[in-house]
Write a structure and sequence with these properties.
615 residues, alpha+beta, five-stranded mixed beta sheet, Pentatricopeptide repeat-containing protein, Domain_X, RT_dom, RNA-directed DNA polymerase activity
Length: 615
Amino acid sequence: MVLEIVYDEKFVTFSYGGRVGMGRHTAIRYLKSNVTNPSWWFNVSFCPNKLDEFNVDKLCTFIGEKIKDAFLIDVIKKLFRCQVVRVKFGGCYLGRGLPQEIGLCSILINVYFHRFDREIQEMRLLVNKKTSKFELVEHDFSNSNVFYNPVKVYAVRYLDEILVIMSGSKVLARELKDRVLDVLEEDLGLKVNRVKTAIHCAVSEKIMFLGIELQAVPPSVLHPPMSEKAIRAKKKYLRQKEAKALELRSTREMNRKKLGLKILSHVFKKLKQSKDGFKSEYQIDTEVREIFRTWADDVVQEFLGSLEERWNWDRLLSRGDFLSLRHVRDQLPPDLVDAYDKFQEQVDKHLAPTKARTVLEEEEKRAREEEEQKYSERTVDDLTKLCMKVSAPIELVRKAVRMAGFTNNMGRPRPIDLLFALEDADIIKWYAGVGRRWLDFFCCHNFRMVKTIVSYHLRFSCILTLAHKHESTKLEAIKHYGKDLKVSNINGYEDVYFPTERDIKMMGDKNLSDPKPVDGAISLALIRLASDEPSHSCVSHFCGRTDTIMYRVRLLQNHLNLNPLVEAQWVKGMGVIHETLNRICLPLCPDHINDLYMGKITLQDVDCTSFVEVD
């Protein structure tokens, strides 16, 4: 808390992770909205190493420059010495809610990298200052087809993951990379894998950062124009809409005609039957007049809106009239000629479609010019501009789905036998926690593919798991739980934990929270135990409830007999819970076991000293 208050306002703007409002999605949003025309990029790859005594002393020196508190610095050193706080670079657990990391690690990492961030900031300002000296004369720029892309440097750091992007020559990118690595190795004393820290072309090569694939693409890739098939479908829809409107208009006119005839027939009948004229208990002449006036206005507006009708009436009232002949007009009275001229003026004013046709042609011409202008701007942007395409690594997600047992080798959903020992509600919660974490984690261009994996593979794997547990068929499980996987609570109400198909369809990629990745949820199962152990307090932090249930931790890698350190067996970039927690027992209250399944808390939020050994 003290470190956060002192340092938060001093951190640079591209430092993310472990800060309020500066999470993973905020970093991705910065890349999508601010980075333009990248040419080269590289992410720093650290060798697997932890902060040793030299690094801890350097960290405490950095803290001592801002906070003059020897007791606080001594406490931090003792935490590292006792391995209560342990920071290891080059792994896959920082910022992922795994128990190997405590909440204090994030702020300590940001403090340790603060000097590096300032160096990067100075490099960016220096490059921008050199670039600003090159200016284009305004009239030369307007009279030429020159497009100037200034040299820019972008940087994003999320805890120990560092991405540097720049536009310009590769020589400049290599100099920037050497400067960055020198600062990390010499000033911070960190070990960097210079072979894996390679410069990549932003256009032709993708790069992984924060579990997301990044690539520089033209704007038309992110916002493609309508295809020919889509244009045909739109035209067909407009034709159907017009035909439906015509049908409704015809029906409305027919109903109006019937109603008007009924009103006139009724009034005429009353007039014939009454000797003193038509009388009524209610004065309805105002309402009837209003109805007929509304109908008349609609008819006139519809008539004036039709160019063909106006053209026909103008032609009928204007053609072949002998009163327009001079020798005939001279023989007629002036009043008759004036009346005819006034009538003809009114006909030309209200019925002549020339002006309306001119306005319509101008609107069509303006729309055509706007479309051509948009096409030219889109073409120029595609040739001169590059944007950031953020995509989920679908192949890695599918590999994780297949490794965890959601699908078979053919890619079809299958049951997971590890979960048969769980209660039905816990099975659904486990699947819901994995699915919701995936949906919250990705804010990407191909978000629809992630939705498909959650809505189809995970949903039907859960249904098949429930069906095999109760030795029933898939259809019987769907009939009992529904596709939304509803379960009844103790009060008889139905609870929905798994995101419904409608909810998934309505989800977008605009979530800006800082969710925990799926690593800890997909590789963990909590099996409820029926034991005679005395009641224990809930192991969740700040929870003193004693109405707990004992759960045993079962890890995915031990169940599948896989070694996460072997890249061919594990999913690249996916973290793993330490195997020492396998078969450890946790007393948890009903609220926190639900939160743990649903991903609201992680094993990082429980008291590791309160674990129970049960045979």
